[in-house]
Amino acid sequence: MSQQQTNRSNAPSREIAQRVFATEFNDAIHTFRESDDDRAPVYALLPTGEKANRVFIVGTLTETDDVGDESEYWRGRIVDPTGTFFVYAGEYQPEAASVLRTIETPAFVSVIGKPRTYETDTGSMNVSLRPENLEVTSKSTRDRWVIETAERTLDRIEVFDSETNEYGQYAAEQYGDSIRPYRDAVLEALESLDTS
Amino acid sequence: MTEPDLRAEAEAIEDELPAAVELSIPQIEEKLTTFVINYQVPLEEARRSIISKTLDNAGIDQSSRGGGNPDVDLSDVNEPDEWIDVTAEVVELWEPRSDAIGQVGLIGDETGTLKFTAWAKSDLPNLEEGGVYRLGNVVTDEYQGRYSVKLNRTTTIEELDQEIVVGDNTTTMTGALVDVQSGSGLIKRCPAEGCTRVLSNDRCSEHGDVNGEFDMRIKGVIDNGEASQEVIFNRETTEEAIDLTLEDAKEKAKDALDTSVVEDTVREATIGEYFEVEGPILGRYLLVDDFSQLNSAPDPDAVIARARSM
Predict the structure, then answer these.
(1) Binding-face residues of B in 142-171 toward A, CB within 8 A
(2) pLDDT at residue number B44
């Protein structure tokens, strides 16, 4: 009826990039979809009670290896104050792979990417990060990320027990409700900053 | 009076009715046919009667339509289907996209700006860009959380001899730039009068092969972990964000024989960095008028205290 309908966009809203420390990210082994549609996004369930289809992390890239057989497949270890993220980039992530191929470690990097779970040879589940974007950054950006990630994590912990928090309840079912270690990791991360 | 005219009239009536009223165009057309064809009622009277009866049935108080509406600041428009009076300057007139629209554009008062639409069928006097008007009996509308006002046949228009300093609806957002979309960096725009469309392979979708003019921009996404917002940096803010002037960017592209090197520069300089951006939101985008890159970390003491208390 009006011209506004012709403007209507059917694009789904963009998934927010969750802020999560390595220790919690690596525990997020449970994944799920919210619809039966094949193209429905896959979410990792964070133990503090949130769904994550995308995360934003900043840390120190300490090591890169080409672990591919026939084609290049780069693995990077990215360390934050609580643990280590593993990122993997191959031919479908050419820009990130190119950074991992050429970068001198150690270096501060930021990564926007999707959580991926996989089963190891020993049968345990691991969580890694498939980068959409990976760029070199600065220490001040890393420090800002630590503070921001601390705040977002505390936000999640604060409402974890809330009756209306469906992801909190889901996380409690999947991982148990002992989220104290994540609060301790937040404190440890903040205290590691030398911003004086 | 022929059938197609009644259909057009029915469409115009449907446009004027608040969205809450559920009356389809065929239903309106049927009523019109009864009035105009079967009972020989003049069209204007038929239209008045249908609108009045429909609003009555929907329980909408019509005393509020005949003037005496609240005077509303544009920034306070946050409900659809309200009948209000506003005093505003016509900031911009846009090109109507359809013959059904008489005028479309942006009006503004001290508190901000809103889109307005006047239907061609309403036969209202034209508003002029820069003019200040008191608009009586306009109805608010909402689309995807953004509001507009519609002028209709009952709207009164009074030109005022006063000036308004229009507020700018500025939104500020702080977060990390998590994506740079294609069409960022060095681009070419169509040089045709009033066009400015971005060219693809030196072709304008409207004007065909043209000799484009270089420009720079960043189309990106700012995300703070709670919300994400698409943003567009214009030439000036892009130059500052990536520390590269348009002239230098053109040189760089010339040396590389490829304009995409500038997009690479944009990605390297901005992705994963924190920005505070400021500007009006238009459609999906926040148009960045002003920004700062956040190059120092804040004091963690408050967050440390919060963590300890938990």
Answers:
(1) 143-144, 148
(2) 78
Q: Give the residues of chain B that fall short of pLDDT 70.
A: 1-4, 60-68, 144-145, 168
> DSSP code of B58?
T
**Contacts for B78 with CB less than 8 Å, ≥ 6 apart:** B147
Cβ contact, residue pair A2, B117, below 8 Å = yes
Interface of B with A in 63-82 (CB under 8 A): none
At A4 the pLDDT is 33
B171-187+214-293: CATH, from 2.60.120.620, 2.60.40.2550, 2.40.50.140, 3.30.70.360: 2.40.50.140
Residue B60 CB-density burial (10 A; 0-12 exposed, 13-18 middle, 19+ buried): middle
Whether the pLDDT of residue A65 is over 50: the answer is: yes
Contact yes or no for B283 and A7 at CB 8 A: yes
Residues 6+ away with beta carbon under 8 Å from B5:
none
Share of chain A above pLDDT 70, in %: 92
Across the A:B interface, residue pairs with CB atoms under 8 Å apart total: 122
One-letter amino acid at B96 equals P
Please report residues of B whose CB lies closer than 8 A to that of A57: none
Identify the CA nearest to A185 among candidates B18, B149, B310, B70. Answer: B310
Nearest by CB: B300 against A18, A56, A193: A193
Residues 6+ apart with CB under 8 A from A78: A22, A57, A59, A60, A61, A62, A84, A85, A86, A87, A109, A111
Give this prediction's pTM.
0.69
Rounded to whole angstroms, the Cα distance separating A90 from A67 reads 10
| Domains detected in chain A | 13-191 (2.40.50.140)
pLDDT tens-place string over residues A108-163 = 999 999 999 999 889 899 999 999 999 999 999 999 999 999 999 999 999 999 99
Instruction: State the smallest CA–CA distance between residue B163 and chain A in angstroms.
Output: 30
Could you tell me the fold of the domain covering B74-160? OB fold (Dihydrolipoamide Acetyltransferase, E2P) (2.40.50)
User: What is the mean pLDDT of the segment spanning A29-57?
Assistant: 95
Name the residue among A135, A183, A186 with its Cβ closest to that of B272. A135
Q: What is the pLDDT of residue B145?
A: 65
A6 contacts on B by Cβ (under 8 Å): 97
Q: What confidence tier does A9 reach under pLDDT thresholds 50, 70, 90?
A: very low
**Chain B residues with beta carbon closer than 8 angstroms to that of A54:** 178
